[in-house]
Design goal:
Strand content: 25-35%
Largest sheet: 7 strands, mixed
Number of helices: 7
Bound molecules: NADPH dihydro-nicotinamide-adenine-dinucleotide phosphate
CATH superfamily of the largest domain: FAD/NAD(P)-binding domain
CATH architecture of the largest domain: 3-Layer(bba) Sandwich
Radius of gyration: 21 Å
Order of helices and strands: EHEEEHEEEEEHEHEHEHEEEEEEEH
CATH topology of the largest domain: FAD/NAD(P)-binding domain
Helix content: 10-25%
Structural class: alpha/beta
Number of strands: 19
Shape: elongated
Length: about 300
């Protein structure tokens, strides 16, 4: 297997990875970035991004990511297609396998592999992707002013998203599979007492319908042990909030993660505890998960990598 050595390896190509590439490129660290399964990351699946500073007229997710990539390339970042399939962080330089066929070693590593929103696995979620199905209320909620939407999930994220959407939409259905919410008490109270939110306990969304994007969802209500009722609810937007899966599996043997898999970093820094290994963006952020916060942490990781390499 051919082995290549690089000073600074960046794994993942969302706002965190590209920002880290801009900074490490400008610092002459000759960063090599592998884009991963979805070049550009989660934002490439959204349409309009209106809350990234610097774009008063908004920008589409794919254009924003393309701009970030070009800016990184301008400073010499070597951006490559490829998926890092294995990692060995047991000793420096750290060793990685790309696409199962190439070995690469690095003195410093920035992990910015992001998180993947979980979906229910319905065929209709794919059919209506970008046409009424979203996993990010903060990103897409604006398009549902005075419309009806559904949020699936019963955790804190679902409750937060339902409350956020209720400030815009005319009606919000919270579809909860259990007879109770898993969210914190305060969020439960807010949701239950909100005049625009209707909580549908023991309901499952099983399909969507509509000729021009989502026009409604098919639901099943569980009634006792054996009985169920099937009916349809008219909605314009269908939001998933059933959790995210941080893309940290290959690093877990060496890095501390929380019970969900988010990489735990030291305090307000991107330091993982393994010297020269930094984590930035959604893979290390269960709380904010915004493009701008990811970009900010990518910047921090790059500065830490530069300090580490220049030590
Ligand atoms: P959680 O794992 O806490 O909740 C996921 C929810 O989705 C649960 O209600 C779960 O149901 C439901 N769910 C999962 N899979 C399915 C499915 N296939 N069909 C239907 N429903 C499903 O994830 P969150 O993203 O809400 O929260 C993650 C962590 O982040 C939590 O610790 C949370 O407290 C924290 N958080 C904190 C916030 C804050 O403090 N402001 C804001 C947001 C999150 P079930 O209960 O049946 O498993």
């Amino acid at each position: 297997m051919a082995t290549e050595h690089v000073k600074c390896l960046i794994i993942g190509s969302g706002p965190a990875g590209y920002t880290a590439a801009i900074y490490t490129g400008r610092a002459n660290l000759s960063p090599v970035l592998y884009e991963g399964l979805q070049p550009g990351g989660q934002l490439t699946t959204t349409t309009e991004v209106e809350n990234f500073p610097g774009y008063p007229d908004g920008v589409t997710g794919p254009v924003l990511m393309d701009d970030l990539r070009k800016q990184a390339e301008k400073f010499g970042a070597d951006i490559r297609h490829g998926i890092v399939t294995k990692a060995d962080l047991s000793k420096a330089p750290y060793t990685f396998e790309v696409d199962g066929e190439k070995e690469i070693t690095a003195d410093a590593v920035i992990i910015s592999t992001g998180a993947t929103a979980k979906y229910l696995g319905l065929e209709d979620e794919k059919k209506y992707a970008g046409m009424g199905v979203s996993a990010c209320a903060t990103c897409d909620g604006f398009f549902y002013r005075k419309k009806k939407v559904a949020v699936v999930g019963g955790g804190d994220t679902a409750c937060e998203e339902a409350i956020y959407l209720a400030s815009l939409a005319s009606e919000v259905y919270l579809v909860v599979r259990k007879p109770y919410l898993r969210a914190s008490q305060i969020m439960q109270e807010r949701v239950m007492n909100h005049p625009k939110i209707k909580v549908l306990f023991e309901h499952n969304a099983v399909g969507l319908y509509g000729d021009n994007g989502v026009e409604g969802m098919h639901v099943v209500k569980r009634m006792g042990e054996a009985d169920e009722e099937r009916y349809d609810i008219a909605i314009d937007g269908f939001f998933l909030a059933i959790g995210h899966k941080p893309n940290s599996d290959i690093f877990k043997p060496w890095l501390k993660t929380d019970e969900v898999g988010y990489i735990i970093t030291g305090g307000n820094t991107p330091c993982t505890g393994v010297p020269g290994v930094f984590a930035a963006g959604d893979v290390a952020d269960p709380h904010y998960r915004q493009a701008i916060t990811a970009a900010g942490s990518g910047c921090k990781a790059a500065i830490e990598a530069e300090r580490f390499l220049n030590k």
